[in-house]
Amino acid sequence: MPEQSAAAGHVIELRVEDVSQLFHTLDPFPFRERDLDREAEEFIVSWARELPADRPLRIVVHLPQAQVSRPEVRDIAAAIAGYFGHRARITGLDLKELFRVGRLSLAIGIAVLSFSIVIGHTVVTRLAPEPVAGVIAESLLIFGWVANWRPIEIFLYDWWPLVRRRNLYRRLAAARVELKPYDGGRSAGIAPAH
Predict the structure, then answer these.
(1) What DSSP designation does 31 have?
(2) What is the pTM of this model?
């Protein structure tokens, strides 16, 4: 489990045998702009998700002493911050797109509901004594409300997970990244440091 210290915030620790384990090796961009490796991202995000949001985060990367002298190691902090900052921006754009779709869906839903009410009322007034008129009017009203299901779902529920994810990525982008060398000889892979 990550260390927790009142003064320093919450700590997420991971250990790698090689600095390249942190990033996609096939990514053609310069080191500072590379995407995090999927396993590294999942590890960091899963720990960060479990930690309370009341204090800042620190990410401590343990790597072999021999890796510390590699030139790209000095860019790890900027690369991690840049990656999570980019993910926060993308999630923010997804949120904007969701609200755009929600507004369009709401406009369509209100138009359908209004049309259903007007047609239902017209049917009732034209076929006043007929019981079929009431069934048609109620059916149209239900149809109108069903047309509003998606915008209601978007504005009441769908946006919360995106906001939480965006905020988590922002916290991770702002996290202080520290490098701690260790003596090699341990198994490779991303794992919590003990």
Answers:
(1) G
(2) 0.77
